[in-house]
Amino acid sequence: MLDEEQLLKEARNNPWFPELLKIAARRRPTFLGSLFDPQVEYLANDSVVIRMKITELLYNNLQIVHGGITATLADTAMGLAAYHASGRPSVTLSLTVNYLQPGLGKELVAKASVVHRGGRVITTRCDVFNDEGEIIIQATGTFYALKEGQITDGLSSTSGDATL
Amino acid sequence: MLDEEQLLKEARNNPWFPELLKIAARRRPTFLGSLFDPQVEYLANDSVVIRMKITELLYNNLQIVHGGITATLADTAMGLAAYHASGRPSVTLSLTVNYLQPGLGKELVAKASVVHRGGRVITTRCDVFNDEGEIIIQATGTFYALKEGQITDGLSSTSGDATL
Amino acid sequence: MLDEEQLLKEARNNPWFPELLKIAARRRPTFLGSLFDPQVEYLANDSVVIRMKITELLYNNLQIVHGGITATLADTAMGLAAYHASGRPSVTLSLTVNYLQPGLGKELVAKASVVHRGGRVITTRCDVFNDEGEIIIQATGTFYALKEGQITDGLSSTSGDATL
Amino acid sequence: MLDEEQLLKEARNNPWFPELLKIAARRRPTFLGSLFDPQVEYLANDSVVIRMKITELLYNNLQIVHGGITATLADTAMGLAAYHASGRPSVTLSLTVNYLQPGLGKELVAKASVVHRGGRVITTRCDVFNDEGEIIIQATGTFYALKEGQITDGLSSTSGDATL
């Protein structure tokens, strides 16, 4: 077992370590929140816009943003839209993503909105754009609004109020 | 702008920093590869099993694995299965995830397989289980096998040979 | 407005009219039930198998079964599996289909099963095979179990107990 | 084996037989085209609108339009949009539908558009509305443009130029 100083020495060998340090220095409650560092804007009509800077930490080994990261961004934006619409945390029931173009450039912009709210099931959509305004994924999602204090057993691991 | 020593001091305030240091000390070419640290096993019939330890860095603020992370794991496992079946890198065209139970416990186990290979389009499925063997998500995905040297413009950001 | 005898004369000009007459002569409560004429078998583990003969009435103009028909078959089989698991009618929340091969041959066989039941949300999967045992679509679906007497407002048009 | 006159006598017992006769009297090349009788309008930007009257033949046994029928309508509209965009027939690779409200009223209106065209893969979306302008499903789909004369083996059973 390496001690912390040895680990730090190893870690510094990675080209992405300085960026990782910046991320870790952020005051977000979760690591993923620090990694994504989403800038959230709520619009009218239960719409949400999230801007997120692209860093090399989000790359797959083709040096483009990993598709799972873009999916996570869309899930987060839709979960926030669902929360905004229902006033309650919700969990993802289903998520579908179509990949259109590689995630490249300076930032990603996710625009999510609520399509329908029927009882406890909230249906949403989200487009994610690159910094040239081109769509890179389209996503749809269904969410289930939790009752106060409801245990999430039997449901998704994503909460609408604080997915990151 | 903080210098590296100041950043390091800030970063150490995070409860998940020691774990982050362990991750960064790994010899994976990408940060996401180091974060997920997948243990990959190829089975017969173009099937792939990936085991991944759950750490607090993968949590959302409900202290369960973020649904986007589980989706990323499934996408990665299916991409590897597609690569194994076609012998070529491929990009994700579409991904659908159904969330069944929260991501909790010591590890996640993704089992992906190729359902059909038709020309350049490869269709896959993946179940992800918790360490008690319960299914927590089911996923399906379609992938597009790249020609040698093909630019990924117009397609997904996920490559089957090295998604992490 | 043509009277019934004139309509009948026109209708007889269609090559598929004799088959249509056979379908209409069936004692199914709905037209779609008569058209599909599904042979349903319930298996253990909340699984359902539906066999359906392929007729020219199910063709698109390429002379293969229309993809929407195959999707309807899968939705029906999954709805029945959900009903079998929950004992209550349910409505489809989301449906995803991956198309693998054209619908050709003498019959289609849909095999659906319940993957998870969490509260009122039931998650299912279904593979549809041709008469050579080759998979032609894979589908996944989520269903929402209705309370007794619940109005379906805000939900899907598909009922698990009697989708056809 | 019943002869045609006996079948006709049986068929007339069905409450939906007069409507079926009207459908069969239409001059559409396929039965499904006659059943749906879609009124297609091409808009700018590779968008397509299809209007379709609701008849009792499209009902499930809850007396609302079967969810598979609505999915078929959306698949057809997206296939036509893909055809319009690429100038070539295409087959459905994947289809996802979220069900929001039951299919009720006088007609359904599907509005489909092309989101992205990348090489031979065309990504689309479609909303279907009731006659009060309320959205009842949202759908997304990916299509694969065929080469001239390409056999559809290994692909879907849906063709973009003539799905009905």
TrEMBL record, chains A, B, C, D:
PANTHER family: ACYL-COENZYME A THIOESTERASE 13, THIOESTERASE SUPERFAMILY MEMBER-RELATED. Belongs to the thioesterase PaaI family. Pfam families: 4HBT (PF03061). This is Thioesterase superfamily protein. One of its GO terms (molecular function) is fatty acyl-CoA hydrolase activity. It comes from Kyrpidia tusciae (strain DSM 2912 / NBRC 15312 / T2) (Bacillus tusciae). Keywords: Hydrolase. Residues 63-135 form the Thioesterase domain. CDD domains: PaaI_thioesterase. It comes from the Bacteria. Gene3D superfamilies: Hotdog Thioesterase (3.10.129.10).
